Structures
1.
Amino acid sequence: MAHNVIDVPAAELERQKKIMNRMAEHTAALPETPLAMVDTYGCQQNEADSEKIRGMLHEMGYRFTDNEYEADLIVINTCAVREHAEMRALGNVGALVHAKRAKPGQLIALCGCMVTQEQMAKKVKTSYPHVDLVFGTHELYRFPELLEKTVKPHKGRIFEVRQIDGERFEGLPSYRIHDVKAWLSVMYGCNNFCSYCIVPYVRGRERSRNAQNVIDEARQIIDAGYKEITLLGQNVNSYGKDLDEGRDFAYLIEEINKIPGEFVIRFMTSHPKDATQRLFDTLANCEKAERHIHLPFQSGSSRVLQAMNRRYTREQYIALVEAARRTIPGVAITSDVIVGFPGETEEEFNETLSLVEQLRFDMLFTFIYSPRHGTPAAQMPDPFTRAEKQVWFDRLLDAQSRISAETQAAHVGKEYRVLIDGKNSSNGKLTARTSCNRLVHLNEPETLIGTFQNVRITNSTTWSLEGELI
Ligand code: SAH
Ligand code: SF4
Ligand code: F3S
């Protein structure tokens, strides 16, 4: 039994399923099959939630479109992690006024992390009157009920956003848009309260899924023909700590690795404070586990790390990366970093730069600090201007571009087994990933999508490799 986790009662999920059936009868009686467009911002967790929304819509008789002028229903799944993500979503929601004018009766729904913040739900209510339905991250399983209310003639718009610790549920359908890769959430929420971050406020407390449910879903995904499973959580390394089932994240990898078939297991994100030697050993021993760890460090200064509430020091982080590299030969380490945390000095920024030079990440996702409403960091004195932070940011980007180009070039001439996972729409080449999650472009026919192939690397750029089949 779970300790602190509250499950959505089975009867409540049954009720939602009945509503889906009722909605399916409703849509079947319409003169034309209704079309839905689901647009997703933010991280893979949001992508996974959007697959659930599509799954529910599919059962309710909707089909899908990418064209907002054609859609009877538009669902925008929003992100709140930085101001930029919110501005983009709001800008696009604002522009939907035109689509709605051109298609009377069109319904617009907003969900996800941004609108789970009280002040943002209010802002949508007052400033975006063409939005019909708003529901928070904790209302996902109630989508059938909320959509039914929205579709039926009713008085007024629907806003359902609870600020709660969050619940777990199983059994809602997913409609996956990729053919080759599938997301699999192993846990929801976050308990870490890094002082800059909004996620714990909008996603609730950490809730691990039952291990057997995760493994069963992995088996279904593989049986359905997917070749890549990405295990998702804000901090997968603390998987299972909230349950008393004695299962950790390494156990999940071991068990999924045992499932017969040709596929790869990826995962994200790992928090350094919970990464263990046992995890590294497991990755080294499980042949289907990728040789890649995304391990965000956020800052190279122990003083800033403490102010961020990250609960590790620069030295501990470096030791962890060294242990991973020792245990898993050839492992790729990628990371996230924030520039310009409130009160960060130039000397402290230089410590970030020196850590990047020392550890030579395979890839680095760099962000300028963005104050988030209600987080402790938003209250801290922040003496440096955006323009000053931008100068540091550019220095970091230059350093990483050089390092990435050098580390990528080191692969030219080498041979790897890759999974061909899609096609690049801009250059028409096939995209493939090595076990270290490096992107390889191939000039090959589309029929190879979804297959594993051996390739030789012929060329490299800063962010990708070129290869040919061998
Ligand atoms: N759970 C993951 C991170 C999820 S958010 C982890 O802890 O590793 C993804 C990244 O966004 C973070 O790693 C961080 O680098 C960045 N980020 C989060 N909040 C931010 C903020 N307020 N300003 C700028 N970047 C932020
Ligand atoms: Fe945010 Fe920290 Fe949780 Fe990651 S671990 S989601 S950065 S609070
Ligand atoms: Fe954004 Fe929510 Fe993910 S804030 S990064 S979509 S958990």
Note: The chain has a mean pLDDT of 96.
2.
Amino acid sequence: MDLLIKGGTVVTAKASFKADVAVKNGKISAIGTNLKPGKKTEVVDAKGKMILPGAIDGHTHLAMPFGGTIATDDYHTGTRAAACGGTTTVFDFVLQGVGEPMDAALARRDAICKEQGPAIDYSYHIGVGDVTTPEMLASMDECVKQGITSFKVFMVYDFGVDDGQFYETLQHAAKIGALVGVHAENKHVNDSLIKKCLAEGKTEAWWHYVTKNEDVAGEACVRAVNLAKMAGASLYIVHLDNEQGVKAVADARAEGYPIFAETCPQYLSLTKDVYKNGIPENGLRARDFVCSPPMKGKASQDALWNGIKTGAVSTLATDHCPFLQSEKDWGITKKDGTPGNFTTIPNGCAGIENMYPYILSEANKGRISFEKAVEISATNPAKLFGIDYCKGAIEVGLDADIVIYDPKKKFVVKNAENQHGALDHTVWENVEFKGYPVATYSRGKLVFDGKDYVGQAGDGQFVKCKKVKFKSPEF
Ligand code: DUC
Ligand code: ZN
Ligand code: ZN
């Protein structure tokens, strides 16, 4: 064996137990007690520590053109930061252009990723931008053949789909064994509220929340669930943030439909209050928190936590999409020097390095079990996106994507000192975590040593996804 991690507590989605973990050729080769190292084996003492599967962040926007600029973290800086927070696989979004077959969009994007040098393994979802012709719809099949089995439609934005196109995408996905994700917000109500606010001179970040409030998101969630039921398709609601949506997912699952939901740490830890004044003591203005969907009220936050506990929420992901503070300032003065407003702020926040530390810290404080934290951060995303044949658990035969976690380590986020992405600020500034990763291995190679990124650009490999066909909420 190449590596032996000794004396730690292995955590899986189902149980925690004391064991040694052996690694050979990048795979987990044995799990047991008193495993003996070979002559050349590197032995790592994990006494008092936990041995966890690396997290799988199923929702990132690296180097994505959006809001008149490009997301600050590229495929290297973003994945480097991910590794330093215990994430070992990311699923990024390929945005299909109008008239561009999805497989061509995939090739275009993957070339950029490879050139930038991903630090950890990666795969993609296709962001559906055009299903208006049979060829465009059929290009989903080629993506599935190439190992991309999940697609995302947007119910908002100019590049979003209408309900008919959404329905057709769902039907086609059901036929070819693919999963459809959805960004669920009611575009028409959102547009109408924006028009009214701007006409009344309401331009501050608070109105971003008001125009994308609980009902705007909740109605779209209910509609998305109904469309999936009608189409006989499975559905994955991304970045779920509202109580009505949690209820829609829970009800559909109770009826036996394969409907799943993802939430993000920002919806579990922050509320709409951040849009009033920001958090000035951390150098954060209200506009720094502008992301879509925006954070909601306490009732929705409580519903999301409850959804995690009951299983209505299956996964945790970041929606990492960072923009510089100077770009966030476009909400005050636009790039061209004219007055800005809440609609001219690039949407998105950082989080790629903070997801696993956040949810593990919540587990460490007793809010959920460590097993649940592992389930929603690693095991369930691997199953839903068809990569559980190689990732998502500490299991013999799987990739040695391993995090050693010290439950006693205290960590306070300081963007300038201990974060590893390219952004000039973070909404996680000064947040304190109870416990922190002290090592991250990607296919058996150390990429984070507890302080710094120690891997190399280009270490990350493309992960092929298997077809997914869910007949029920169990998977
Ligand atoms: N929401 C964001 O905040 N950023 C990118 C795309 C999205 O839907
Ligand atoms: Zn989205
Ligand atoms: Zn997103």
Note: The CA atoms of residues 76 and 118 lie 5 Å apart.
